[in-house]
Every structure is written in structure tokens, then in C-alpha cells.
Design goal:
This is Type I restriction enzyme HsdR N-terminal domain-containing protein. This protein has one domain: Lambda Exonuclease, Chain A (Alpha-Beta Complex), CATH 3.90.320.10. The strands form two sheets. The chain has a six-stranded mixed sheet with strand order 4-5-6-7-8-9, sandwiched between helices. Helices cover 20% and strands 39% of the residues.
Length: 148
């Protein structure tokens, strides 16, 4: 897998039927190792180990209904009250973080209304604070600290 612009960690990799798998700390099982999953697991590690987000408040691959279609958020962090706090959209490293990617995460956050959104391909990260009342977005220099 590609080197990322995220801290390396001791990930548990295995091979099953000739295919790579990585242990997902949140789902507590091995999942298929794809470039996007590689990025997601690095972001999970970053949030837990470097920003001290509680593991119990992070959900991977959560479902939502958007225009009568089932979609999945890559990562959602909740505050201690159970409200969405941080929505993370992960892309594979070779995917350009285009306007279409921001449109996708905006549609998801229109439902969730998280105050923070991150879009990353593991190499480039965009962190934003969203004010749903004023409908404004402020780009941040870093991932938001957990304040929950």
C-alpha cells in the first residue's frame, strides 16, 4: 500500500484466499484491504492515538438515507451526548479531492449536521468547521480536537 501523509501505525494485515485484509479496530474484524480502507484505518488510528478521540464514539461505515438511496459515511464521530461531531470522508490516495468529493460530503452532512467535516485521500486533508445556522464553512489548519 501507498505511504500516506498520516502517522504510521502497527496495523494487523493478513491474507485470505490470496486477498489482503486489515484488522478494523472499530468493527473488531478483518476487512478487505482496499486503498480507501488503508486511508480509513490510518485516520481511525490518528483520531484515537493522536487526538484522543474515544474509540467508542467513532462509527465506521454508518448508513444514511439520502434521496431514498442508502449511502454510507466512512467515519462518524459522535459527541458524548450522541450527536454527530465529525464526519470524515476517505478516498483512495489516487483520487483527487475535487468539487464532486466536497459535494458528496456536503450532501451527507446535510443529513447529519456535524459541526466538523474532514475530507482526505491520505495525502491531502481538508478540515472544515461548518455553521449550519449561517450556512458557512471555515477551513481549519488541523483536525479538530475532541471537545465532546
Amino acid at each position: 500500500m501507498d505511504a500516506l501523509n498520516l502517522p504510521a501505525f502497527d496495523c494487523k494485515l493478513t491474507e485470505i484466499d490470496g486477498k489482503g485484509y486489515i484488522f478494523d479496530l472499530l468493527r473488531r474484524k478483518h476487512v478487505r484491504l482496499t486503498p480507501e480502507e488503508w486511508v480509513r484505518q490510518h485516520v481511525v488510528n490518528l483520531l484515537i492515538e493522536h487526538y484522543r478521540y474515544p474509540k467508542a464514539l467513532i462509527r465506521s461505515e454508518g448508513g444514511l438515507s439520502l434521496n431514498k438511496t442508502l449511502k454510507r459515511t466512512d467515519l462518524m464521530v459522535f459527541d458524548r451526548a450522541g450527536d454527530p461531531y465529525l464526519l470524515v470522508e476517505c478516498k483512495a490516495p489516487q483520487i483527487t479531492l475535487s468539487q464532486a468529493v466536497f459535494d458528496q460530503v456536503s450532501r451527507y452532512n446535510h443529513i447529519h449536521k456535524a459541526p466538523y467535516v474532514v475530507v482526505t485521500n491520505g495525502l491531502t486533508h481538508y478540515c472544515c468547521q461548518v455553521c449550519h445556522v449561517n450556512q458557512t464553512i471555515e477551513f481549519l489548519d488541523d483536525f479538530p480536537a475532541f471537545a465532546g
